[in-house]
Structures are given as structure tokens and as C-alpha cells.
Amino acid sequence: MSSVSEGRFRGSSVPLLTPPPRFATLLTDDGVPVEAVYEPCTAGFGAPDDGAAGALAATPAESTAIVVAHGFTGSADRPAVRRAARVFAQRAAVITFSFRGHGRSGGRSTVGDREVLDLAAAVAWARRLGHTRVVTVGFSMGGSVVLRHGALYTAEAVAGGAESAAGVTPVRVPEREGRIRRTGAHSDAVVSVSAPARWYYRGTAPMRRLHWVVTRPSGRIVGRYGFRTRIATEDWDPVPLSPVASVPLIARRGARRGAREAPRRAEPGAPAVLVPRRRGPRGDPRA
Q: Which of 97, 108, 116, 202 sits at a 20 to 30 Å CA gap from 75?
């Protein structure tokens, strides 16, 4: 039996080689272990042309890192989070992580309060890996966290000054929002998708179910065993500023309207913020 040469196989645009992910357990400023995954940018890997293979991806200092903040009951290994990470990785390096009380992270969920510390640890990890530009992208609860993180952690707070030397956040953040400063934990841009504008909103059936899961003992049992989410039993003390109240500048974008700025001035060092417009019932500030 003889074989016939079929010649050179037709090239494919599907990458044949992708950089492996890196797994880590990060420690937040309040001592909570957080699972995280780093995926380098896949642009350039497995290029069909021999000459392009040497270019591969840019070095971390030359590329952007995107830190993805999932919603309530999500985690780094949820299919929706993994799909988003694969899409983002085509253009930038991506860090996904599980908020406290979710997935394999420690602690208990505070539903948007101390999760800011989890995000700060992930952003600081991106900078330690060499990325000079970091964008945070949050969905639902994660959307409110990236907004508050953008207000609490700024480049000015890290650069120096009396406030940063004391190890606290800038003066413009109210005292009740004070956090331990983590060097390099600020973001350069913020994208918030379907985030709540204020706390304790019960105007829709899904939000009423969420409050039942968070505030009732039977609901927290459902959250733990049904959604793999461990929820803190303590009330917020003090109540953190709402996402809208803590953000110095919001650019809202609607289907029929162009992007516009809210009547609030951005202060020096504050990141750019994009909040995709979300429709809501009459009287809902998200509308």
C-alpha cells in the first residue's frame, strides 16, 4: 500500500498555540485569600505566517490588562466569565478572580462592600506582572464594585502626598469609605455593565429575591448550597456610599442618545468611567 503526498495543509486562522494561564491565590488588605487566574493576550500566538510568529504578543509593559469582576453568585470558573475572558484575551491580558465568599476564595460575601479590597488585590497583581495600563470591567454586583474601586483607589493616592504617606485613601473619599492603601491598586479606566445605582433597591422581582437570599437565614442557606455563595450575616456598618454617590464622573451611553457626562466634575487622578445605559422602571435611577 502506497501513500500519496497531499502537499501543504491549508492554513487556519485558529491559533495553534496559546500561552498557558497562571493561577494564584491573592491576599487582600483584610487578609482574605482570593483565587485568581491570569491569561496573557493571545494576539499573535499561532500566527500562520512564519514571520509573524516571532512577534507574538507584546510585553506586559506594552499591553493592557483587563480585570473582570463577576456578579453575585458568580466565580472565576463560571462559563459566562470564561467566555468573556476568552473574548477579552484576543486584545489584552485578562485577570479573572472570585470575590470573597464565591468559588474557591475565602471569606464571606458582603454583596459589594468589602469586595472592593478583592478587586484592589487583583489590580495590584496585574501591575506586579508588569502591566502599566489596567482596565476594570464589572458586571452586575461587580459593576458596582468597579465604580467604587475607581473612586477609592486613584493614581494620586499611590503617587505620594500626606494622605498616601499615612496609608489611607484620598481626602475626597469620605472617612467612612477609608481603606488601607495598596500600592498600584488603581485602575486607568472603568467599565460598569448593569450595575445597581443605589443600595436596598427592591423595585423588581429579581431584586426582591436577591434581598431574600442575602438577609434571611433560609435565603443564605439557598445561597450557600444552591449558588455556592457564602454570605456574611453582619449588616453593613457603616453603610458604604452607593456606586453613583462615590463616582466623581460618569459617562452614560444609551441606545438613542450619545455618551453624556453627568453633572459631576472629575477630580485629578480619577479614572475614566463608562456606564452602559440600562433601562429601568419609572423613578429608577438606573433609567
A: 202
**Distance from first CA to last CA of the chain, Å, rounded?**
72
Distance, CA of 195 to CA of 137 (rounded, Å): 11
Q: What is the DSSP string of 72-113?
A: TT--TTSHHHHHHHHHHTTTSEEEEE--TTBTT--S-B-TTS
Decide if 184 contacts 124 (C-beta within 8 A): yes
Q: What is the pLDDT of residues 185-233, one digit of tens each?
A: 999 999 999 888 888 888 889 889 999 999 999 999 999 999 999 999 9
Which of 113, 95, 105, 111 has its CA nearest to residue 149?
113
Which of these, 138, 126, 143, 142, lies nearest to 41 by C-alpha position?
A: 126
Please answer whether residues 101 and 108 qualify as being in contact, where contact means their C-beta atoms are separated by less than 8 angstroms: yes
232 is written with which cell numbers?
456574611
Cα-based distances in Å from 66 to 94, 132, 142, 263, 273: 5, 11, 14, 28, 14
Does position 124 have pLDDT exceeding 80, yes or no?
A: yes
**How far is residue 225's CA from residue 255's CA, in Å, rounded to a whole number?**
39
CA-based nearest residue to 171, from 180, 162, 183, 182: 162
Cα dihedral 100, 102, 105, 106 in deg (nearest 10): 60
210 vs 129: CA distance, rounded Å = 36
**pLDDT given for residue 182 in this prediction:** 63
Rounded Cα gap, residues 205 and 191, in angstroms: 26
> pLDDT tens-digit profile of 23-64?
999 999 999 999 999 999 988 654 444 444 434 445 665 689
Q: What is d(CA 149, CA 232) in angstroms, rounded to the nearest whole number?
A: 20
How far are the Cα atoms of 97, 191, 241 from residue 152, in angstroms, in the given order?
Answer: 20, 15, 11
